[in-house]
Design goal:
With 137 residues, the chain is mainly alpha-helical. The protein has a domain of 78 residues: 3 helical TM bundles of succinate and fumarate reductases (Up-down Bundle). 70% of the residues lie in helices and 6% in strands. Strands 1-2 form a two-stranded antiparallel ribbon. α3 runs antiparallel to α4. The model has no long low-confidence stretch (mean pLDDT 87).
Length: 137
């Protein structure tokens, strides 16, 4: 129990803080809450993808033999399934971030719609560039 000082008399008096009990399943009560939690959980998969990328870069710096053994693990069936799951969560995270970025960063002279559209345009340009590099090399 917290105590506060009464400024007039100098005496301490007990104060109570109201705490509303919230069940652990609060996020299952409404669809928007569930989607919010799903987006937050998707961040774990974004981090997992970054870790996988770092593992591959470390293996690449270790020489051809090390990279090939690491690549063999990444080509296994369970890793391909895991990468598909990760891809779905990363796409969900990205799309939801693009949707709210207009509301967060949209201010004059840029409108929220312009910020959101420019995110998608940049994503499309970068994706085309990566595909071009992969096909060329």
């Amino acid at each position: 129990m917290a105590h506060s000082m009464n400024s007039i008399s100098g005496k301490t008096e007990a104060t109570k803080t109201y705490r509303r009990d919230i069940p652990n399943t609060w996020w299952l009560k409404k669809g928007s809450y569930f989607l919010f939690i799903l987006r937050e959980i998707s961040s774990v998969f974004v981090a997992l993808y970054a870790i996988f990328l770092l593992i591959q870069l470390c293996a690449l710096s270790g020489g051809q033999e090390r990279y090939e053994s690491t690549a063999a693990v990444f080509k296994s069936g369970w890793m391909i399934i895991l990468h598909v799951v990760i891809w779905v969560f990363v796409m969900y995270n990205m799309v939801t971030w693009f949707r709210i970025s207009g509301r967060i960063f949209g201010a004059k002279p840029l409108s929220p719609v312009l910020v959101t559209i420019s995110n998608y345009i940049i994503w499309l340009i970068v994706s085309i560039g990566i595909i071009f590099l992969l096909l060329k090399g």
